[in-house]
Amino acid sequence: MTSPEQTGRLDRGDGTELAWARLPGRGPTVVFLGGFRSDMEGSKALALRDACAARGQAFLRFDYSGHGISGGAFEEGGIGIWARDAATLIGRLVEGPMLLAGSSMGGWIALLMLREFGARVVGLIGIAAAPDFTKRLMWPSFSPEQQRTIREEGVLLVESPYGPPVPITRHLIEDGAKNLVLEEAISFSGPVRLLQGMQDREVPWQTATDLAQAITGADIRILLVKDGDHRLSREEDLALLVRTLDDILEKKAGGAAP
Q1: pTM greater than 0.85 (yes/no)
Q2: Exposed, middle or buried, 155 (CB in 10 Å: 0-12/13-18/19+)?
C-alpha cells in the first residue's frame, strides 16, 4: 500500500518557512517545480502526485517563498531566491536521483537545479517551460513608460488574466538577468520532454524549440498541443503529462530504485 503524503514546513535559514509535501517511494524522486505566482495545489502538481502514488514513486512538491502557503513576500522574491528555495528543499528532502518536472517558470528553475545537482538529475519534463522569461518575454512586452516605471519606482502592477494585478519589481528583472540559462549550451544527456501549447499567449511555442536546441543531449522530444493554452490543465493535457512521466520512468528501468 502506498504511504500517505507527508507535509511540513522548512525554515530556509532566515526565518522564512517553505511549505512542502512529499510521497515516499522508489526512485528517482519526481520533483514538481511550479510556475510564477502558482502553488503546489495546482492541477498539474496533483496529477503528478496521484500518478506517482499509483506507481509507488517518490514525489515532492512545494511552494517557493511568497507563493502558496510558504512564508515571505512575493515582491521580495526573484528567480535566484526561488531557485535557492528549491535547492534547499531538494537538498533536505530528496535522496538519490531525481526527475524534474517544471511548469512555466518552473522550467527555468529546473534548469538551474540541473546546474546545482548535476548527475543526480536523470530526466526533465517542461510544461510550457519559460527559461529566461524576464529578459526574453516580460521586459520586451512592456512599453517604454512601463519600463521607466520599473527602473525609477521599483515596481509595476501588471494586469493578469489569472487573478489580481501582479507586482513586477526591478529586482525580479535584474535578478532574472543574473540567472539566464539559454545564453550558452545546457549540458544534459538524459531524456527531455517539452510539452507546449500552440495557443499559449504567455510563452510562444517556439520557446520549446529554442530550449531543445540549447540542450546538448539527443533524447529530446517536443510535444506540441495545437489547441493547448499556457496552463495545459485540461483533462487531456493532464493525461498527456502523466503518460510522458510514465514513459520516462519506464525508460529509467521502470522507476526502480538505484
Answers
A1: yes
A2: middle
Q: Is residue 153 part of a domain?
A: no
Query: Which listed residue (104, 132, 175, 237) is catalytic?
Result: 104
pLDDT for 251 = 81
Domain that holds residue 75: 6-131+187-249
- Residue 67: active-site member: no
What is the spatial distance between Cα 235 and Cα 75, in angstroms, rounded to a whole number?
33
187 is catalytic: no
- Give strand pairing partners of 10: 18
Alpha-carbon distances of 223 from 24, 37, 56, 68, 114, rounded to whole Å? 29, 25, 26, 29, 21
63, 85, 175, 200: the active-site residue: 200
- Is 174 a residue whose pLDDT tops 80? yes
The 8-class DSSP code of residue 205 comes to T
Cell numbers given for 78: 526573484
CATH of the domain at 113: 3.40.50.1820
Specify the DSSP element, H or E, that contains 109: helix 105-117
- pLDDT at residue 107 tops 60: yes
Residue 144: inside a domain: no
| Residue of 66, 75, 77, 68 lying closest to 21 (CA atoms) | 68
* Number of separate domains in the chain: 1
43 in any annotated domain: yes
Distance in angstroms (rounded) separating the CA atoms of residues 144 and 233: 34
In a domain? residue 160? no
Is 103 marked active-site?
Answer: no
